Automatic annotation (TrEMBL):
Domain of life: Bacteria
Alphabetical list of Gene3D superfamilies matching this protein: Hotdog Thioesterase
Source species: Nocardioides soli
Name this protein carries in UniProt: 3-hydroxymyristoyl/3-hydroxydecanoyl-(Acyl carrier protein) dehydratase
Length: 139
C-alpha cells in the first residue's frame, strides 16, 4: 500500500506560537515570552498537523484516531517556519468486532525539506460495505 497524501504548506506565525504557548501555560524557560526564537512545542506541532490532515481530505473516511506511536520530533518548529505533512497508508485490517483500522505513516517537513516530525497513526475508519478489503483496492 503506497497511497500518499501531502497537505498544503502552513506558515507557523509568531502569533500562533504565542497563542498556543500562552493558552497551554508552558513555563519552561525555552518557551519564555522574552525568547524571540521560542519554538512551538511538539504537542503544538501535532495539533497543527492534525488540522492540516483534516483539511486535506485524506481522512474524510475516519471516525477517530485510536493510536499514535513512534512519534519522533526531529527538529524544532519556530515562528516563520512553513510545514507540510505527508500521510502514507501502510496497512488496513478488520478487527474481530468488525471495525476497520488503517495504519498510516506521517512525516512532516519544513520549508528546507528537513523532517521535523515522524509518527505512526492508527485510525478507526468507516467500514467498506460489500467492496474491496482495503481502501487501497478502491483506488
Amino acid at each position: 500500500m503506497t497511497r500518499t497524501t501531502t497537505t498544503e504548506e502552513v506558515v507557523v506565525t509568531g502569533e500562533l506560537v504565542a497563542t498556543l504557548l500562552d493558552a497551554a501555560g508552558f513555563v519552561h524557560p525555552l518557551f519564555d515570552a522574552s525568547n524571540p526564537d521560542r519554538p512551538l512545542p511538539g504537542q503544538g506541532v501535532l495539533l497543527l498537523v492534525g488540522g492540516m490532515l483534516e483539511r486535506s481530505g485524506a481522512l474524510d473516511h475516519a471516525i477517530a484516531m485510536v493510536g499514535l506511536d513512534d512519534v519522533r520530533f526531529r527538529t524544532m518548529v519556530r515562528a516563520d517556519d512553513r510545514i507540510r505533512a505527508a500521510l502514507q497508508l501502510r496497512s488496513a485490517r478488520t478487527t474481530s468486532g468488525g471495525s476497520r483500522i488503517e495504519t498510516f505513516g506521517c512525516t512532516v517537513h519544513n520549508q528546507f525539506d528537513v523532517v521535523v516530525l515522524e509518527a505512526t497513526v492508527q485510525m478507526l475508519v468507516q467500514p467498506i460495505e460489500n467492496g474491496p478489503s482495503t481502501r487501497e483496492e478502491q483506488l
